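Priority: medium. Attachment 1 of 2:
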């Protein structure tokens, strides 16, 4: 499966920096990342040295503030890229509405302007 790099100015959803811990789960392993690099409504980029093979389906748990023990956002995705910059995971297009709402709220809390593109897409389709 070829990996296509999309220039940041052509991304469908703007990315915002994020520093929450992330766990990535596949059928037989759990990878823990001390901090993600960035996130958008389309996916997440995690750092660290551990990688999954390209195309791997996985679960993604974004562990929110320590003050909110047990609070997390859980999504599903696919590994699109793994290189020196990190491991990029695209979120599944068929996310549960609660997961999508939680992602939107998180991104909006980090950068209120970041999901304006998403809002414009909804109005255009709607």
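Attachment 2 of 2:
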């Amino acid at each position: 499966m070829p990996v296509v790099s999309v220039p940041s100015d052509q991304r469908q959803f703007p990315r915002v920096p994020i520093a929450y811990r992330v766990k990535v789960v596949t059928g037989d392993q759990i990878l823990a990342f001390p901090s993600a690099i960035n996130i958008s409504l389309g996916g997440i980029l995690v750092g660290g040295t551990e990688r999954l093979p390209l195309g791997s389906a996985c679960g993604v748990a974004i562990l929110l503030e320590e003050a909110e023990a047990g609070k997390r956002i859980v999504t599903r995705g696919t590994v699109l890229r793994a290189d020196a910059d990190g491991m990029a995971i695209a979120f599944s297009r068929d996310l549960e509405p609660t997961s999508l709402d939680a992602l939107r709220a998180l991104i909006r809390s980090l950068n209120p302007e970041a999901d304006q593109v998403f809002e414009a897409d909804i109005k255009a389709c709607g």
